[in-house]
Design brief:
By secondary structure, the chain is α+β, with helices and mostly antiparallel strands. It has helices at 3-29, 48-62, 76-83, 85-100, 127-143, 174-189, 202-207, and strands spanning 66-73, 109-113, 117-123, 158-165, 194-198. The protein is built from seven helices and five strands. Helix 3 crosses helix 4 (85-100). The longest helix is centred in the first third of the chain and has 27 residues, at 3-29. This is GGDEF domain-containing protein.
Length: 208
């Protein structure tokens, strides 16, 4: 076997190992799992379900609202096809930093959701403040100048779904499911949109 054939063979197996590694990463990223917590104060390493339960418990004990904000890159499949996995991950890393810079409270959490999104768990945050936070994040991402030629906006935008509830025991995962449903509804309406699912009763809305 010649040296050229050996080098080519090594490169072939390097590509195979790299591909298998990406597939394993994708399997780990499927569904609502925590990939990263933002900032040192948020690096708990707990699974998403535990973070949701913890946020629910905090809000329940304080008798305040819990906001759950799901955000995702619009047109992500097209972005991924046009730019590739490495560029997509770089884009998500930059959005990580944008969101992390805006979370100032110890109880706030921001977790990676699937391959293209983020989930913010915001106990004791009024819905208007959560809505303003979503708008500020979206504006900051636009200002970051992340190009997306596959989008009509010409830049990366974030769709957002916000669910708000006044928690009472026992823990109810539906707040997370409704945040994701609101996200999908927002994305069907267009780019950079926000939709809100309010699970509070009328008396609770007035009191909040």
């Amino acid at each position: 076997m010649s040296m050229t054939e050996t080098v080519q063979g090594d490169r072939f197996w390097q590509r195979v190992r790299a591909l298998l590694g990406r597939q394993a990463d994708n399997r780990r990223n499927d569904g609502a799992t925590v990939l990263r917590a933002l900032g040192k104060r948020h690096a708990t390493g707990r699974p998403l379900e535990e973070e949701l339960q913890n946020g629910w418990l905090i809000a329940s004990e304080r008798n305040v609202s819990l906001c759950v904000l799901a955000m995702e890159i619009d047109c992500f499949d097209e972005y991924l096809a046009a730019y590739g996995r490495d560029a997509a991950e770089d884009c998500l890393e930059q959005i990580d930093h944008v969101i992390g810079s805006m979370l100032k409270r110890d109880d706030d959490r921001c977790l990676r959701l699937g391959q293209s999104g983020f989930l913010l768990i915001l106990p004791d945050m009024p819905v208007l403040m959560a809505r303003d936070l979503a708008a500020r994040i979206s504006t900051a991402v636009r200002r970051a100048g992340l190009v997306n030629k596959e989008s009509h906006a010409g830049a990366v935008t974030l769709g957002a779904g916000l669910a708000v509830v006044n928690p009472e025991p026992p823990y109810d995962r539906s707040v997370f499911d409704l945040a994701k449903q609101a996200l999908r509804k927002a994305q069907r309406r267009g780019l950079g949109r926000l939709d809100i699912a309010d699970l509070r009763g009328e008396k609770q809305k007035v009191a909040a």
